[in-house]
Amino acid sequence: MKKFVIEKDKLAENSRLIQTKAGVPVIAVLKADGYGFGMVQMAQVLAETGITMFAVTEPEDAVKLRELGFTQQDILVMRSTSMADEAYQVVQANAIATVGSPEAAYCLNEVAEGCGTQARAHIKIDTGMGRYGFLPDQYAEIKAVYTHCAGIEVTGIYTHFHSAFADEAATRAQYKQLCAITEQLKADGVDCGMRHAANSSGLFCYDDLMLDAVRVGSAFTGRIPAKTPTGLNRLGYLESRVIELRTVPKGHTVGYGAGYVTKDATRIAVVPVGYTDGFSVEKKKDLYRFRDVIRYIIGEIKNGLGKGSIYITVNGQRARVLGHVGLCHVSVDVTGLDVHNGDTAILDVNPLYLSPLVPKEYV
Question: What span, in angstroms and rounded, lies between the C-alpha atoms of 93 and 95?
């Protein structure tokens, strides 16, 4: 038996803190099934705290939210698309499309006119992320979406910070590029609509990049790489139980590759959680600057020397993981601890890599 537990009151507290910190409307990003916390359940809690605008990446997620009763909130689909079937889903969901290219603008305009309506859209500017968006020097094409697409009502414009958690100079340069475009639109008599750029790290690392709104996702979960204190609650934990207790002698090996050798007789608790559940699984490193590579290497050396040990909580007590984490189980040292079969085990996991077979429970 295992489940991923999310405390609703802590999520609500994070939401209120974020809204106070922002001081402008907060667009709650629910991509990747709410960062692994459950898109629908997260949306319900956030709506109760006053969030009135969501953002997703997939058009079908906008459709799902509408079908499940989220009819009063605006929903921004952040992925620009030139696919007519996806543009149709956005229009039918009465969501806000993202337009990041002339082709995407043409596609959305044609679909909206075919549906006998005017689609709302935000313009995406690529200031260095390299995924979606008009380049800053495509001003004529950007302006044309505002002025020459009868089937599109542009209600906003935005960009995405790629290194707000690590590079202030680059982040401010991106911000200035977006502002230069919006100022030019204003000078040309065009209302650019809602301007937004700050993401979770941008919100907590800077106090002057808020514009008209902020887009926040991972901050709701309390899991952001910002070095500055945030005051956020870290949400979510995997709950399982001890299913086996045994004692092995000194010199006994534990785990694949005989990765650990006991130094004395050791009492071991077995918990049926492994990397298939997202335990001890990490995403690839974000940065490749020389100083970051050195830091990563030092971290791996510490792990190899046992200084980067993994711990879980068993019956309220800290217990060290022995050897490598297995596919479906983990062995922990409970020597000298008050631990019994059936006791609760709490593990920290990355919810993005949580097995879909593990139920999520909001409490």
Answer: 5
Token pair listed for 205: 């690392």
C-alpha of 246 from chain center: 39
- Candidates 312, 309, 301; CA nearest to 277 is 312
Q: For residues 160 and 162, give the distance between their C-alpha atoms in angstroms, rounded to a whole number.
A: 6
Q: Are strands 53-56 and 360-362 parallel, antiparallel or unpaired?
A: unpaired
Rounded distance, CA 174 to CA 290, Å?
Answer: 23
Q: What is the reported pTM? A: 0.89
Hey, what are 15's tokens? 């939401």
For residue range 203-214, list pLDDT tens digits in order.
Answer: 999 999 999 999
Report which residue type is found at 145: V
Give the pair of three-digit tokens for residue 255: 């785990």
CB 57 within 8 Å of CB 78: yes
pLDDT in tens, 80-114: 999 999 999 999 999 999 999 999 999 999 999 99
User: Among 93, 89, 95, 92, which Cα is nearest to 77's?
Assistant: 95
